[in-house]
Amino acid sequence: MARARKATVSLLMIGVLTSAGAPAAQAGRPGPTAVHPALRAHLVAAYDFDHPVPGDPALERDQGRSGTEIELINGGAAMRVPDDAYRGSGNAVQTRQVDPAVAGNDDWKAGTWSASGVRTLRAFSATAGTTVMGWFKLQMASPLPDSTTPDPTDRFNAIGLAGVLTGDSDGHGVRALLELIDVNGELRLVALGRRLDGGNSQTFAASQDWRALLPAGEWVHLAATFDFGTGALALYRNGEPVPGFYTRTDDPWLVSGPGPHVTTASDPRGIKIGGSFPQDTLERNPCDCRMDGLMFLDSVVSANDVRRQYRHLAR
């Protein structure tokens, strides 16, 4: 895991060299043109896969204010593929399962992980809201074979898209996540969030068939919002709200009492893209897909601003 260690060292150096006031200074820039101006103030991390780290193309530079580099795990620079997800896009990232018959750690995925928390992602510590959004193109018709079991007929119960990990995550547990997962025996597009480290998650699942929402081979813009103050979640597809339902009707985030309610005051342990365990110690929920324009924001983006972002880039 020399590559992972290098990425971790890079993040630690960013933490040493930047002061607490650095994000505010960066927030004053105009921001990347692929991001609508209404969203730029809350843009913590963003990846368009057109900005490799000089001297190390297996690392991708952050276009948000945090400076959080991510690693293109196992595939390195080969994971950047030319594909125009939106107006002005160049490369996308390709993630995929490599060998379903082997319980190895060779799947192509992306992200970053640190056991002590990723300091540059501190905006997601004690936050009242988060948004995850981006462009996704699936190249699969069902969850992939489970490479961690000896039965070749076993399949994973989910397809991982993109999310922010909790402050105590083993590389799988999340604070805010877009994914496809089995809900009562049926795969559904979901927003899955967790307010408290070690606490319960809540899931908002799309009512519509996931294959209609994400047709194979078609670029689709998705967004998920997480309001930790009220317990509300939302999904959007191509700028419009997606009807759905909560999988729990109780109070998994413990927001019924006096507030304000925010996430645990801990730095997330990282970001995962196209599967779990960005430290590359286990394979889980791989995605044979392409992604582009991934954005992680420290606020609940309004429906109007989700629509603005989509229309800002859509052909």
Summarize the structure.
The protein is mainly β and 315 residues long.
Structure report:
This protein is mainly β. The protein has 4 helices and 18 strands. Strands 2-3-4-7-17-9-10-11-12-16 form a 10-stranded antiparallel β-sheet, covered by helices on one side. Strands 1, 5, 6, 8, 13, 14, 15 and 18 form an 8-stranded antiparallel β-sheet that branches. The longest helix has 16 residues, at 2-17. It is globular and about 50 Å long. The model is unreliable at 1-30 (pLDDT under 50).
Overall pLDDT, averaged? 91
Question: Biggest sheet, open or closed, and with what strands and sense?
Answer: 10 strands, antiparallel
Beta fraction of the residues? 25-35%
Strand order, main sheet: write it out.
2-3-4-7-17-9-10-11-12-16
What's the count of strands?
Answer: 18
Distance between the ends: 40 Å
Order of helices and strands: HHEEEEEEEEEEEEHEEEEEEH
Q: What structural category arises from helix and sheet content?
A: mainly beta
Helix count, DSSP H or I runs of 4 or more residues: 4
Q: What does the overall shape look like?
A: globular
Radius of gyration: 18 Å
Query: Which parts are unreliable, with pLDDT below 50 for 5 consecutive residues or more?
Result: 1-30
* Helical proportion, percent range: 10-25%
